[in-house]
Amino acid sequence: MQFFLIGFFFLTAILYASVGFGGGSTYNALLILSGADHRIIPLVALACNIIVVSGNTVRYARAGLLRTRALAPAMILSVPLAWVGGRIPINELVFSGLLGGVLLVTGLLMLLQPRNPSTAPAPLPPLSPLWLMPFGAGTGLLAGLVGIGGGIFLAPILYVMRWGDAQQIAAAC
């Protein structure tokens, strides 16, 4: 079973890296299906996610798509709150329910968006950086609780806000 798990982790890393994400949600699912202890799942998933996302970050930065200055307000609170979330002990039922619920909501947000960029509304006027702080705080806390990089939560928010094009959002997340 462990051999297959390693192979699925590798495949997940390749597929998610190809679109700019890390694969934390799939690592969580694979670990849950393998019967891993729910207390180590966030640690393993987040560690794998960080490895994959690090490569993406370098790639997007070299391409000039990473807008770190525009993301700074979100990162200021997301990083410490991800650490706090990771330190909060939660039982298996809460972990599974929280993970499933937030992934369902983020998936629905992405599905409900227009597919054709020409029919999508124009980008919103620039918002005050303070608007990104609560989103960063929330996504950071959720990321720490369930062991997924916050990008999967932040992407739909940035997309709904029309913060940037698909590549800029992927680079941000």
List keywords for this structure.
173 residues, mainly alpha
Descriptive report:
- With 173 residues, the chain is mostly helical.
- 69% of the residues lie in helices and 0% in strands.
- It has one domain (2-172).
- It contains eight helices and no strands.
- α4 runs parallel beside α6.
- The longest helix has 22 residues, at 41-62.
- The mean pLDDT is 82.
Layout of strands and helices, then pairs:
Blueprint: H1 2-17, H2 24-33, H3 41-62, H4 68-87, H5 92-111, H6 132-146, H7 151-160, H8 166-172
Helix pairs in contact: 1-2, 1-3, 2-3, 3-8, 4-6, 5-7, 6-7, 7-8
Extended strand count? 0
Q: Helix count, per DSSP?
A: 8
Uncertain runs are: none
Structural domain tally: 1
Report the order of strands and helices. Answer: HHHHHHHH
Averaged pLDDT, please? 82
Summarize the model shown:
This protein is an all-alpha fold.
